[in-house]
Amino acid sequence: MANKASSRLEWRINVPDGTSKVLEPESGAVGKIWVGLKGCMGIIVWKVRRVLENAWHIGVADPRKVIHCIKVGLALSIVSLFYYMRPLYDDFGGNAMWAVMTVVVVFEYTVGATFYKCINRVIATFLAGALGVGIHLVAEQSGDQLKPIILGISVFLFASAATFSRFIPSVKARFDYGAMIFILTFSLVSVSGYRVVELFELAHLRLSTIAIGTSLCILVTMLFCPVWAGCELHHLIHQNMEKLADSLDGCVTEYFKENGSEEDLNKKMQGYKCVLNSKAAEESMANFARWEPTHGRFNFRHPWKQYLKIGASLRNCAYCIETLNSCISSEIQAPPCLRKHFSNKCMKASSYSINVLKELAITIMKMKKSSNIDVKVAEMNFAVEELVDALKSLPTTHFIATTTGEESTKAKVEGVEGSEHPSPIMKVFPLVKVVSLMVEIATRIGGVVNAVEELARLAEFKAAKDGKPKQNQPTDKLVSDH
Amino acid sequence: MANKASSRLEWRINVPDGTSKVLEPESGAVGKIWVGLKGCMGIIVWKVRRVLENAWHIGVADPRKVIHCIKVGLALSIVSLFYYMRPLYDDFGGNAMWAVMTVVVVFEYTVGATFYKCINRVIATFLAGALGVGIHLVAEQSGDQLKPIILGISVFLFASAATFSRFIPSVKARFDYGAMIFILTFSLVSVSGYRVVELFELAHLRLSTIAIGTSLCILVTMLFCPVWAGCELHHLIHQNMEKLADSLDGCVTEYFKENGSEEDLNKKMQGYKCVLNSKAAEESMANFARWEPTHGRFNFRHPWKQYLKIGASLRNCAYCIETLNSCISSEIQAPPCLRKHFSNKCMKASSYSINVLKELAITIMKMKKSSNIDVKVAEMNFAVEELVDALKSLPTTHFIATTTGEESTKAKVEGVEGSEHPSPIMKVFPLVKVVSLMVEIATRIGGVVNAVEELARLAEFKAAKDGKPKQNQPTDKLVSDH
Fold first, then answer.
1. Could you tell me the residue ranges of all domains in chain A?
2. pTM above the 0.90 mark?
């Protein structure tokens, strides 16, 4: 009977790679458990393999992450020496633990983040320690009855206040970690002070172990392949500018080309999405960058906040490009003859806009004032105006002005008369959309130009050396193609 | 001579509230230092006052933050009892420190975040402790010479591997804190094991103090005014939907109204910016929410990820509204007669779109399937089509079809003939922009509808009870105004 039932039951395991195995029924409960275990193991092995593959790709894509892991291992191994070497151990004893803990907690990927945590940790430990000892002394004066009450109330008050300070944005940005360490140290000192008489000795030992831990972290993070938050931010903004230029290029090319879409172009077009999503990364990097000492081309007081403004203006452009991108996939498209007529003008406007973005990217990368950005902006504006004029001059006859006699403008049939055919308004509709977005994008690129110029002023960029300005041609490929 | 010079020097301190004081020269260096100190103190006092004012506003705006601070103080005070009560102290000794430390580090604003840290901390401590003891035993077998080398290498390897795992997105989202605690505990155990013989005793004590700390945190965070990450996420998405509807309303009203802009409307219009910037908050809340047990209307396995998809579709709308918003401030505006003609249609389309958004917001808030969302979507689509038709029927005569004889569509002068006057293309240009954005916004609202319906399916929302569907009227105010 039981055998019959088990022969009707199938153990089917859906291994997540798409295949599903029918497991043959084995005899008895042991068999079933064994089969179930095998299935579980299979899934676990598959999941682990996927995580490992993922890890491999991450390591290959950015070897600095692997180096960071080695650095952490190295710092921990060095700090372990305190335990292994008897003379040092005798000096610090169990307090050497704080050095290990400091290294684990404080060591971060970027130099800025490590500095931020180190400085916060040292200052907060010192302040909280001093305050804790002070309150401990006061409590000692008030007798054994009052002492725990005073200590308890002070822990409650200071912990609450420090916790609240973490909600204030300006404090959170700079001293979030410090506030936590403050609470930690203060509670530990005022509470353990109840027992330990040698409080000063303890404080001294703990501070020196923390100092050892932090200085080790700072040394290791700065000496071996340092990753500077400032450089990363600089690089991110530069890359985002390039990506934005590429997406704009990709979108306009895609819209006006006649053949099907290519894989390559599609990937290029998606660049704006990175720009849309990089706000959080930019902000945290700018926060860390201001802790970094002078490095490479960046001073201690480099205007990192201005990078955030450039980032915001880039995102502003990206919003428009996102809308432009949705025009491409729109069902309603302008008739081919109209598109062909506009394609040249639009490609020109877009390639001049791209030129401006690329010039800005070069300005950022080289940290030199561009000598011909004004020319490029003027070209962009001119190209956009031409585009609008082309739209204006679409043949629309017999228009009657408003009754108030505002203007009796009659649109003149210009230029395109012979080659092109006029269309009813719905045919122009998708084109007007694209043109209006191009105009808007050009305006917003103007915003990026202003932000970059402000950065150049604040960071005192030098003028670029090369005397002969480059030929102000739009990207050749684009124009010659059409 | 010195007197003369000092009488020409003015000490001017720019107190940041806009006033600047001329300080009268006092006699000698002491006076100057005194004056300088007074200035510094003034600035510090001013800064502290500003931070305090800021803190006050934060506390008034969200009293739960104040409650959180009190909860932290409370938890710390309770855990301090371990020190003050002799019998407990004798049991745990110095290890009671770990309970204090756990409370400080683990206590977070939301229940989900506290759970995440608690579970991570306990599991990571246990795993790392077990592994550390195991490796310690192996090292002990290999003699005193090899032991430090084996321990050192194992610390290096495991610390590096755990650090690397923090770069893998799926691990980072769930086990970032656990990985750090793993490194910490493993290094401490394998390093201190070199000295301490009673390793098992120590491990047991430490685990039990951590268990005490974490369970205290979980109790306090859940019993006193709990802040659930899931509820917060739910509320945020609901609010963002409302804000989006308000901005759309504000933008369209602003565009078509004849008087100057009002303060109130301006504020309303800016709501979409919150939507644009809430990605990071949504993601972290969704991450924490999945650690939360069943609470209120949310099960343990509530589809929190779907909220992220709704958030993304809302942002998609917000991009368009951002572009629409820039149309308002654009210099080129359509002539008043045209705008007046379109105002009604546009307001209608926008108010039907807003209706859909508001209905979705209600669906989310009540967690009940809407009975008339389909009708509202149909109305929205119809209103948008009407708007496009109105644009189509703008009088454009004498259009000649393309030579290929594609379609000899002649735009018919319909409806508006008598009341309105035709305009050249440039006059229609800004309107076409607005209309095309309205069409795009309606399409994207369709995306939000799909995402919400998917959520309703996944979370098994019940159908709303009220049998009689509400009157499907657009927001009255909007239509009657114009």
1. 46-223, 229-394+424-463
2. no
